[in-house]
Amino acid sequence: MAESQQFQNATDFELKSVSIAALGEEKGYEIKQMVGTFSYVESVTSPFVAATMTIADSAGLLNDLPIQGGEIVKVVIQSSITEEPIEYELTLWKVAGRNAKNKTQSYTLGLVSAEALNNEVTRLFKPVSGRGDKIVKDVLDTLGTEKEFLSETTEFEIKMIPANRRPFDLISTISIKSVPKGAVGSTSEKKSKNEKQKVNGTAGFFFWETKRGYNYFSVDYLMDQADDAWGPYIEKISNQSDGADERMTISQAMFKSELDVMTSLRTGKYSTLLVFFNHATGQYDEYHYSLEDAYENMKHLGAQNKPSIIPATDDKKISDFPTRILTSLLDHESWYNKPDIASFEEKDGSENPSPYCDFHKHFAAQSLMRYEMLNHQQATIVIPGNSEICAGDAIRIKLVNKGTDERINEEPWDTESSGVYLVSEVTHTYDSTKSTNGRFVTTLRLLRDSCGDIESNHGTK
After folding, report:
1. Helix (DSSP H) and strand (DSSP E) numbers for the chain
2. Do 18 and 37 form a contact (C-beta atoms < 8 A)?
3. Last residue of a domain, one of 80, 97, 113
4. In DSSP terms, which residues pair with 379 in a beta bridge?
């Protein structure tokens, strides 16, 4: 973080320029004096960035340009967090909430990345093939983007017919099917007549855009960022100052959810039964996928060594009873024209299996469970503005112990809620109406799949 003599407070900023230009025009119309607030949003579940800008217009901007949609809006902002100004370039897609009073109109501009609008008018027809990360890169090229693409390598090769779908819709389907390289789960045969075969492993990717570019990474990759986490950001006791850097403080912390057993049961988070039927061979299989069995092979941001699973009986847990059934027709033959067996399964004995086999067994329950696990602990914190934090980053927070004075004296920090979290969504809010230098705050929506900082009592009893 760069030091700056220009700003006295951690939340100060300067709105250096805001311009709006029609498509094809290089010179924009300067509207800095009209802007009240500018909020910029990134999310790991969104394939494009978005923003809103409130305008107080006494110059007739709507009529002078006139605004039709598709205009390029460039925002340049200086804050204490970086030496160089940060620049945002977005496309206008919406004007909303227009209100006229006296000679001034107030309204809100909706802004998105240019690729978001291109996605709506682009349809894919030709078959796509290759590993998941390659397909995503090829699909992005159809949008004509020049932004950087950051990804990790996936395990299996996929071949699909897009069927007239939009690029981002196809990428969403590929994300669920993708398995991290080297993370293929193992299967075990059933030991008794009543026991189901077990399948292990992890899967599931996120595709999202940040100011750094496009990102395609697995949930496991995002859960393995503790060493590169921002912070620590520390919750300060009200009206107390210890002389620490004010930019590294938490002004507000709220927890949306820390436990939801009913939803977890309905979504099969603890245990899922996978039913597969191969219509080409007539083979029928049932597999049991359990969180308890898969947990140790996954990366986690919290310190929890075991998942929190409720006992069902004296000798069984709820993870022993599947609460969701996933059924799927397996099809290894669609992209295979040779006379021998297409299946990759060892038991089928093929010497030359199809590279585009149906790998549902290795991602169906694994992806759903991995996404659901992220909702284990959800928090929202507000910190002094930091435009460098992006969705998909990790952040370390330290929250004050809310227990009795005796417990606080023993341990001043909340060891179960503190620790490293995934930034699932980030909102940078620049408010020019607050104080002389405005007010810049960053709101972070955080997720993680296990509790605890250095140690945790969850799952140990």
Report:
1. 9, 24
2. no
3. 113
4. 255, 446
